[in-house]
Input
Amino acid sequence: MAMPRNLEGLSNPLATPAQLTSSSSSLDGIPTDLETSVRFAGALLTQAAGVLLRLPQDVIAQAIVTFTRFWIGPDGGSLAVHSVKDVSAASIYLTAKLSFHPTSPRSVLNVYTYLLSKEASPLWFVNASVPKDKPRAETYYLSEGSYQAQRLSLLKMETVILRTLGFNTHVVIPHTIALTYLQTMNTASNNLAQRVFEHLNASLLSPQLLYATHQPNALAVAAIYLAAREVGVKLAEEEWWEVFDVDREELGFLVVAMNSMEGFSKSEKEAWADTPIPLAVKDVEAELAKRQKAQDGE
Output
C-alpha cells in the first residue's frame, strides 16, 4: 500500500489495483460473495467489541480499518488460514494499545467470548434467535485455562497482523476532517454533522473497501455532500468539493457507494437469516462443503 510522502499526516496507505484484483482468500478458493459476507460480519463484530470495551469511536474505526487492510491482496490474510474472530480481536487489542485507551487481553477476550456465544450473543450473524432475557453467565464464561490459551493466540495474531501490514499501523479517520470542512463552509449544524458521521461510520463496513481505496478528505467530502442533500442543507452552488481536492468522478462514486450501504446491510441480513455467518476457519470450511454438496446435487 502506497502513501504520498508529502501528505503522510493526513493520508492513508491505499490498496493498489493489483491488490484489489485478487485476495489471498480468493486464491485459496473462497468465493467472492462469501468473502464479502465474512469480512462484513468481522467489521460488525469489531464495532460491537469496541462499544462493549467502551473505546472511543475513532479507536474503533481505526481498528476496523486495520482489520480490513489485513485481508487485502494476495499477500494479505486468508479466510482459509485465519479466523475472522481472531483477527478482529487482535485488531481491537493492537489499535487500543497504540492509542490513549489501551485495554487488557483479558477484557478483550471476555468481550469476544460473550459476543461469540451461541446462547448469549446479541449479534444477529452469530445468534439467529437473540435472547430476550439476560443470558446465564456460564454460557459465556471464560475459564482461566481457556484465557491463557486464547491470550497466546491473541498475541500471536497481533504479530501476524503487524507483519502482514509491514508494521504500518497509520490510520487517519475522516471524521475530524469532515467537521473542519463543515466549519469552513459555516454549515456545522448538529443534524448535519450527525448524519455525516453516520455515513462515515457505515462506510467502514463497505464491500467496496472505501477506507482502503479513498483518502480521508474524499470520504469526508462525499459524506457531507450526501448528508446535506438528506438533511436539506444548501451548500455552495459552485463545485465546492474541488476546494478540498476531490474531483466530480470520485465524489460521484463515493456518494453512490455510501448511499448503497443500507441496502447492502439489509441484503446480507436476509441472506444469512437462517444460519450464522462463518467467523472461524472450520466454519468457513463447513460452508464451502455445504455449497459444494448443494452444487453436486443439482
About this structure: The longest helix spans residues 32-52. The chain has 14 helices and no strands.
